[in-house]
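Entry 12.
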Amino acid sequence: MRRRFTRLSAWAGSLLVVLALAGRGLAHSGGLRGVAPESLSVPTWLFLATGGGVVGASFLLASFVTDRTFLRRLDTWRGPALDVGRVARLVARVVGVAALVLVLATGLLAGSVTPLDPVRNAATLMVWVGWWGVFVASTYLVGDAWPALNPFRTVAQLLPSLDRSYPRQLGSWPAVGGILGLVFVEVVTPLADDPRLLAGVVAGYGVSTVAGAVVFGPTTWFETADPLSRLARAYGRIAPVRRSDGRLTLRLPGSGASSAAWVTGRDDAALVVAVVFATTYDGFVGTDLWQAVARPFVLAGVPPLLLYVGLLVVGFALFHGSLLAAGRLARQSAETFLTADALVRRFAPSLLAIAAGYHLAHTVGTTLALLPTTLVVVAAPFGPPAAPPTLVVPDWFAGVGIVAVLAGHLLAVWIAHTAAYDLFPDRLQAVRSQYGITAVMVVFTMVALWIVTTPGGAPPYL
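Predicted 3D structure (tokens):
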């Protein structure tokens, strides 16, 4: 057991040394993305070590909370329920479809009827600021409203369905591949700069996902295989508002993620990893470290696109492998008969809080800066291409991203702690079972902080 723990610690330490020596880099940006923070006034290694130490210390503090009754009460606490009427659901569907039509119209007509400039085009602003920045953040800060707003689901429900049996072996893997595929397309193509290309991708995605819903039925498809629906649903697990059977219920943040009911196999655990890795990949490709790693291969004649594919595959494999290693270590350290896969399924949802914190840190600056622009442009999408206002984000606001990352990781520690005490009858056994997942969280914290605290830049060699 000690040798396994030492190996995992050595692997984590090696990665941290690489990041510390890399120093400052360039976070991914282009078009609408990226608000460059100020330089750090302390050594990078010290800053990253401090962030990882905060997560480690939070694990130690959480270990003192051993009252199972108290933990269960927090995890199952629910506030008053609010019924969502049919009118509200109908309005949400109309708004979703109208937004999709506007994105397609203003994107496809860019350069003729609507502005080609992405900062003046409603399509790019609605997708990157309105959907990716504001709405996705609302799924974990408030609750998942995507089932009601999803225009593709609304369209699919109006069409006849073949109701074919969905292959059980596929599980959530189409959603995993879809999330990774979408972030790959976003990185290697100028989606944030070309409204027409963006509208074409949105249209292509819509056709493919509606086709899947027609074949397998809207409910099965959007709750199992659709990437955007599964992404929003995963983020909604840590939100304080839960939507079920047409009712909204208040709960404590993160309590929905600690449930053992929704991560039922390796595919669901891989989906959680994909959600965490997607934003990390998007940020890492603009760093000086990636540029330095890719340069010898580019000079040797390797196609840059192939390098980005390799980074996607290898990076996801490392993230997924670290979670599997945490499960094996949990089985050894807790001395339990539970399988490593079972432990992975219970601890994997805690990583969603990490993904949420990093997403907020990655997007909040750009979203706030362009929110006035978005409101003006969307109000008159076919109007004259006047220069709309932008919000000046103060330098100190870079600290908000750091706070978001740390807050997400602290919540992740608490979710894992709650799951461990629900899983194991012995208190010391519950604490020991968290060694592996805590080590993974420390590494993820430092990686996220390193990326968030570097200035922005476009992916090189594309």
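Annotation: The beta strands are 27-28, 78-83, 241-244, 247-251, 456-457. Residues 1-42 have pLDDT under 50 and may be disordered.
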